[in-house]
Design a protein that fits this description.
This protein is mostly helical. 56% of the residues lie in helices and 10% in strands. It contains six helices and nine strands, in the order βββββαβαβαβααβα. A three-stranded mixed β-sheet has the order 1-2-6.
Length: 287
């Protein structure tokens, strides 16, 4: 029998719980393949055939282990039935010897029909947990970018089409607080979504206007130049640089929305595959 993720039998309940292969516990995964690594996109969108093959790969190990568990379960139940039947026959033989056969005892061997077990199969794809968290992070990223774009449009208080002095300092605070939202969810580009990357995105303040004011009041914003968007590093954002800054947030939001839709399709496919596998394994158990 398997260990922590194997079959449990108690009080008429049989529980088959399958988590991640390897050392991580059920529901845990060190990472999940990112969009760049999931080869399911075709010229006109997501190829459902490719998506099914990708999801099938995530489930393959668990389904194989489930079938082994089911075969072991059936073998053990059959062995137990044989032992119980033999014990009842032996008890009947002993009673007959004690009574001299005067009172025949009808012995009915136990059968599968007389034993009632409820079998619960839990297929657990740990990558699904990360994809769901990633979807939340991407939704958060898109909201942050929208809020940052709105604030950026308000920073030019004197309407001279450039950000200087305190205006520039607020733009700097905005950049420092939201720079993570300007980057893809898979920040290091290794093709894997990790808990750390997702948590870092979710840590970006959604109400950027309030966060900027608090950061300025606390004195946490050093008087340095804005990277990337202050191209000549002169401590001023001219109109073209302001537009580039705003476009950075807009592009990040568009990418986040696209990735969110993609991972939502992947998560839906995993849930549907889990349902099909549970039904298939249930039919195998009932054979």
């Amino acid at each position: 029998m398997a260990g922590a993720r194997g079959i449990r039998a108690a009080a008429g309940l049989l529980w088959i719980c399958l988590g991640a292969a390897g050392g991580t516990g059920a529901g845990e995964a060190e990472g999940a393949p990112s969009r760049a690594k999931i080869d399911v996109e075709g010229p006109s969108g997501i190829s459902h055939g490719k998506l099914e093959r990708f999801v099938g790969g995530l489930l393959e190990g668990q389904v194989r282990r489930a079938r082994l568990e089911i075969a072991e379960l059936k073998r053990e139940m059959e062995e137990r039935r044989k032992k119980e039947a033999e014990a009842m026959r032996e008890a009947a033989r002993r009673r007959e010897m004690m009574t001299g056969g005067a009172s025949p005892i009808e012995i009915k061997a136990p059968s599968a029909a007389e034993e009632t077990y409820r079998v619960s199969i839990n297929i657990n794809v740990p990558e699904l947990v990360l994809y769901r968290a990633g979807i939340r992070a991407l939704r958060h990223q898109s909201a942050v970018c929208a809020s940052a774009t709105s604030l950026l449009a308000e920073l030019d208080r004197d309407r001279d089409e450039k950000l200087t002095g305190e205006e520039y300092k607020r733009a700097l605070a905005l950049y420092k607080l939201t720079s993570r939202a300007l980057q893809p969810l898979d920040r290091n580009g290794d093709g894997v979504l990790s808990d750390r990357e997702i948590e870092a995105m979710l840590a970006v303040p959604r109400n950027v206007k309030e966060a900027v004011e608090k950061a300025l009041e606390s004195g946490r914003i050093e008087n340095v130049r804005i990277p990337v968007y202050d191209k000549n590093q002169d401590g001023v954002l001219d109109l073209a640089e302001m537009k580039d800054f705003a476009m950075g947030f807009a592009s990040a939001a568009i990418a986040a929305d696209s990735d969110r839709d993609f991972y939502s399709a992947v998560a839906d496919a995993i849930r549907e595959a889990e349902r099909r596998v549970r039904e298939e394994l249930q039919r195998e158990i009932e054979k």
